TrEMBL record, chain B:
Catalytic reaction list: (1S,2R)-1-C-(indol-3-yl)glycerol 3-phosphate + L-serine = D-glyceraldehyde 3-phosphate + L-tryptophan + H2O
Cofactor(s) listed: pyridoxal 5'-phosphate
Modification type N6-(pyridoxal phosphate)lysine: residues: 109
Pathway(s) per entry: Amino-acid biosynthesis; L-tryptophan biosynthesis; L-tryptophan from chorismate: step 5/5
Function as written in the Swiss-Prot or TrEMBL entry: The beta subunit is responsible for the synthesis of L-tryptophan from indole and L-serine.
Protein's name in the database: Tryptophan synthase beta chain
Database matches in PANTHER family: TRYPTOPHAN SYNTHASE, TRYPTOPHAN SYNTHASE-RELATED
Segments of this protein annotated with the region Disordered: 1-23
Cellular component terms per the entry's GO annotation: cytoplasm
Length: 279, 414
């Protein structure tokens, strides 16, 4: 994050500064809005906040999610079946204003946003208290004009860096992302992995060389050991998606909020405890 | 509709016909809407393709294989009995078939599969993936992979596997692994999504031989350029056969590769009418069709902006066509552009009209066209009565119908 005196800090910036001062790793769970339904999503969001999430990435479902593995694909199908659409997701967040105070970052493929009207979407999302936007099919070249619109509505468009991204391009992306840099930890789609690739350590180091943005690592992070490793390697945040989504799908409606809350606690503990797990 | 097409709709200058732009756009369409992981591979592919076309060795090898392995050039055949059938009092539409069905593997698809396999080898990638709908692109890809000793994985929807079992068997016989795709509608759209996900996961070792003029830049250009041989030969053969350019080019459009291959060398010859025919399934006013250009709206699918069948919330809708190869809710971005600027016209015909055309061409010419191709033939019914003077029409006879006989037998009363 390159902050000049004229530039005001976004909600995401403030959150990362605060965490940095307290030497804490940002814990950012991902869930799909409307999975299993929007009422439950609302309860889950509050439970995640209560049990230690620092930010939440909230997915808007799309019929053809190219960057997602089977777990999140199926979650998107369930969410679409429960009638979820961008308007309802924004409405839900509006209803949580005052209760849900941590930064909410919406995750959506570009097409539903274009169909809604990108500018209109940003305006409504911003009014509902949304802090940022992640669009996985919007690489740097296509992102410039959208990033401006997002910023005009006091939100951050967060860009992704992948293991395949060359060094020079890493620099360009880091200079244009807002809030933080999303480091994709695997060459692949979202989904739980058994182990973290060791090259992630190098990627974090490289990213730190090119920019002072906070770095949050996502894709494949599924266990307390992974979270611990990411912390040891010097990242500022960790994004956990499929591991949460899988627990949502395998829980009954009665237990889902409790189960997700417990898993979040476990991840919080891993994020806070140094060297608990052998690397 | 062709009959209501007006010449005043044309609104383009030379720059509109010389695309894509550097950033991969055809007007407002095209672009690169893919996960960051793929961007370096797309840049690599763009450079590799551009260098290859400048390399005489590459072009010579491609041309040599097109001749000796694929069987090019394909004939331009005068369909005299079809011509007779469509003759009216005021005009005789002379109908010519560009016989892409005579290519090795039975369709135009191999032009692109061969070219991209050579590109993959240049890039040092030994694992090939592809999507397929009707199975023609899958067979063509499996064929070239066998020819060059490349590992080949084909993604195919479970629905399509059912209706194209012959092609599934052919792919397996050629040594390819056919991966069944059950997600979504289990057709070409989902097979393409799954192929892209594979590519995201294995991009460092794998080349994705995309089979249509769709997907992120540079695919629409690469695929078009490998198929442009269809139009180039046609141009030369028209001059040889009747001493002028054709008046009308006609081709079916799913993603639009055979149409783009035929149209491309003629795009700047603005006297030549370009007509693409989409699949209307049960009818464009039902919810069971694949007429993307006719009924779609601007959206993003599989990495590029184009016209798209989608609902009010931007969710991609299911397409329907009796022909697996046209059963796709998107279309190549260059077609959307040619439609917007009025350079090409697009119509659609129903499943039944395509079946009737398949039967007619089989009986009159002794050629069983693919169900996809039959959509182009079916348009003659609507086009020919509107012609006021003698006209040379070239139809891209893009594929043979052997693969479709089971589908046809259950639909036609033979």
């Amino acid at each position: 994050m390159q902050i000049t005196e004229n530039e005001s800090l976004s909600k995401v910036d403030v959150k990362f500064c605060e965490l940095k001062n307290n030497k804490k790793l940002a814990l950012m769970p991902f869930i799909m809005a409307g999975d299993p339904n929007l009422e439950k999503t609302s309860e889950i969001l509050l439970k995640l906040q209560e049990n230690g999430a620092d930010l939440i990435e909230l997915g808007i479902p799309y019929s053809d999610p190219l960057a997602d593995g089977p777990v999140i694909q199926v979650a998107a199908s369930r969410a679409l079946s429960s009638g979820t659409n961008p308007r309802k997701v924004i409405k839900l967040l509006e209803s949580l204003k005052g209760k849900l105070n941590i930064p909410i970052i919406l995750f959506s493929y570009l097409n539903p946003l274009l169909c809604f009207g990108f500018e209109n979407f940003c305006e409504m999302a911003s009014n509902a208290g949304v802090s940022g936007l992640i669009v996985p099919d919007l690489p740097l070249e296509e992102a410039y004009k959208f990033s401006k619109i997002v910023s005009n509505h006091s939100m951050d468009l967060i860009l992704l860096v992948a293991p395949t991204t060359p060094f020079e391009r890493m620099k360009q992306i880091s200079n244009n992302t807002k809030g933080f840099t999303y480091l994709v930890s695997v060459t692949g789609v979202t989904g739980e992995r058994n182990r973290m690739e060791n090259r992630v350590e190098n990627l974090i180091a490289k990213l730190k060389d090119v920019n002072s943005n906070p770095i949050a690592v996502g894709f494949g992070i599924s266990t307390p050991e992974h979270v611990n490793k990411v912390r040891e390697w010097g990242a500022d945040g960790v994004i956990i998606g499929s591991a949460f989504v899988k627990r949502i799908s395998s829980s009954s409606e009665k237990d889902v909020v409790y189960n997700i809350g417990e898993f979040c606690k476990e991840m919080r503990l891993a994020a806070d405890q140094k060297n608990k797990y052998k690397i | 509709m062709v009959s209501t097409f007006s010449r005043q709709d044309q609104n383009y200058n030379n720059d509109d016909l010389n695309l894509p732009s550097k950033d991969g756009r055809f007007g407002k369409y095209g672009g690169q809407y893919v996960p960051e992981t793929l961007m370096p591979a797309l840049f690599e592919l763009e450079t590799a393709a551009s260098n290859a076309w400048k390399d005489k060795l590459f072009v010579n090898e491609l041309n040599h294989l097109l001749k000796t392995y694929v069987g090019r050039e394909t004939p331009l055949y005068e369909a005299k009995r079809l011509t007779e059938h469509y003759k009216t009092k005021q005009a005789t539409p002379k109908i010519w078939l560009k016989r892409e069905d005579l290519n090795h593997t039975g369709a135009h698809k191999i032009n692109n599969a061969l070219g991209q396999a050579l590109l993959a080898i240049r890039m040092g990638k030994k694992r090939i993936i592809a999507e397929t709908g009707a199975g023609q692109h899958g067979v063509a890809t499996a064929t070239v992979c066998a020819r060059f000793g490349l590992k080949c994985i084909i993604y195919m929807g479970a629905e399509d596997i059912k209706r194209q079992s012959l092609n599934v068997f052919r792919m397996k016989l050629l040594g390819a692994e056919v991966k069944v795709v059950n997600s979504g509608t289990a057709t070409l759209k989902d097979a393409t999504s799954e192929a892209i996900r594979d590519w995201v996961s294995n991009v460092e070792t794998t080349h994705y031989i995309l089979g249509s003029v769709a997907g992120p830049h540079p695919f629409p250009k690469i695929v078009r350029d490998f198929h442009a041989v269809i139009g180039e030969e046609t141009k030369k053969q028209c001059i040889e056969s009747f001493g002028s350019l054709p008046d009308i080019l006609l081709a079916c459009v799913g993603g639009g590769s055979n149409a783009m291959g035929l149209f491309h060398p003629f795009v700047k010859n603005t006297s030549v009418r370009l007509i693409g025919v989409e699949a209307a399934g049960s009818g464009v006013d039902t919810d069971k069709h694949a007429a993307t250009i006719t009924k779609g709206s601007v959206g993003i699918l599989h990495g590029s902006m184009s016209l798209l069948l989608q609902d009010n919330n931007g969710q991609v809708q299911e397409a329907h066509s009796i022909s697996a190869g046209l059963d796709y809710p998107g279309v190549g971005p260059e077609h959307s552009h040619l439609k917007d600027i009025g350079r090409a016209e697009y119509g659609s015909v129903t499943d039944q009209e395509a079946l009737d055309a398949l039967k007619l061409v089989s009986e009159l010419e002794g050629i069983i066209p693919a169900l996809e191709t039959s959509h182009a033939f079916a348009w003659l019914d609507k086009l020919c009565p509107t012609l006021e003077k003698d006209t040379h029409i070239v139809i891209n006879c893009s594929g043979r119908g052997d693969k479709d006989v089971n589908t046809v037998a259950s639909s036609l009363d033979i």
